[in-house]
Amino acid sequence: MVTLAYAYKGRDLAGKVVKGKVEAPTESAVAQRLRVMGVSPISIKETAAGTGLNMEINLSAFEKGVKSKDLAIVSRQMATMISAGLSLLRTLTIITEQTENKKLAKIFDMVRSDVESGSSLSDAMAKHPDDFPPLMINLIRAGETGGFLEKSLESVANNFEAEVKLTGRIKAALTYPVVVLIIAVIAVAAMLIFIVPVFETMFKQLGATLPLPTQFLVVLSHGMVYIGPIVVVGGVAFSLWWKKNKNQDRVRKFVDPLRLKMPVFGPLLKKVAVARLTRNLATMMGAGVPILRSLEIVGSTSGNWVIEQALVKVGDSVRQGKTIAEPLAQESVFPSMVTQMISVGEDSGALETMLYKVSDFYDQEVESMTEQLTALIEPLMIAVIGVLVGGMIVALYMPIFDIYNHIK
């Protein structure tokens, strides 16, 4: 069905005159949508879709994406409004109007149109898989089926809020060393490009014999003319390649195990993975999503190939009538405490509770470990910068000391 653009004028529930534009197949569909929005139409006129100065400029490439924080806020707002008695269409209309993220607002406007046409909320969201993760869609679908949509939305909000908090801790631990490393690289490059050539010219005029460390700096300075552009072009090319291929199985199969084996950061990533896995699985089970479907979704959203493959084995075990803990115990990424608690939860019929306890424990572990890493990395990075810059300064002044000794 062809949609047309309509300009409308009406009064809202407070009696205030409002104006705007909507797209709909007919004028009566516009009037129906306005009534759902709580607006009494005064006039509805068809308008051009956009020509000349009225044409909408597509800046979607520059719009910020949909993040977990945005989804957490929206889910919490929707749960509050639905539990307060607002209709789903009215809730989606309010979300569309007040969401600050422009991309998310456009998506919810399309979701609202689909719901208005008769689709369920989960089916409408499933049309946007790049923006709404499977975990969110399936939790909402379970809530729609069981008649507890607001509780499902609360579960979604709680899950994403915990995810945002966990991600924030990781970023806090990594921000300082990354910034310091960038500053160190810039400082070294600046010395090689601008300072070393000045000293080289001075040494040539004085006829000084350059010691080996100074010669190395001079050669490196000359090479920066070629090394710099190669590094920049290589970095950009790798970034583009990584963005395109990072989700392919052949890349993840090689990279993800290495991430978990990294010194210092490997154990941290393991704790993050366990916290995310147990929390997501507990949330799915609490919402009434079937266990096999829960394991499939949690595996695909784990963010690590090793864990995803482990959950494939768990799914096979459950299909055969076996336990969840048994295949997990065979994977080194899961500590024995985790598998033991899951085993106890299965035996006692309190698996969901045990999973939440494990996720809370590892959330605290991640927080503690990030604080320790931050405290450890700060002096190490300062020492690294001191060695680099100080070593370069000493190498530059060594010929001057030799010249002074010859003069004496």
Question: What would you note in describing this structure?
Answer:
The protein is mostly helical and 408 residues long. It contains 15 helices and three strands. Strands 2-1-3 form a three-stranded antiparallel β-sheet, with helices on one face. The radius of gyration is 30 Å and the shape is flat. The termini are far apart.
Helix/strand layout:
Blueprint: E1 4-11, E2 17-24, H1 27-36, E3 40-47, H2 68-83, H3 88-98, H4 102-116, H5 121-126, H6 134-146, H7 149-206, H8 212-245, H9 249-261, H10 265-286, H11 291-300, H12 305-319, H13 325-329, H14 336-348, H15 351-407
Antiparallel strand pairs: 1-2, 1-3
Helix pairs in contact: 2-3, 2-7, 3-4, 6-7, 7-8, 7-10, 7-15, 9-10, 10-11, 10-15, 11-12, 14-15
Supply database-style keywords.
single chain, 408 residues, mainly alpha, three-stranded antiparallel sheet, 3 strands
Helix/strand-derived category reads: mainly alpha
Radius of gyration: 30 Å
Shape estimate:
flat
β-strand percent reads: 5-15%
Q: Care to count the β-strands?
A: 3
Largest sheet: 3 strands, antiparallel
Instruction: Give the proportion of residues in helices.
Output: over 70%
Q: How many helical stretches?
A: 15
Physical arrangement of strands within the biggest beta sheet: 2-1-3
Q: Which stretches are poorly predicted, pLDDT < 50 over at least 5 residues?
A: 49-63
Brief summary of the model shown:
With 408 residues, the chain is mainly alpha-helical. The chain contains 15 helices and 3 strands. α2 packs antiparallel against α7 and α7 packs parallel to α15.
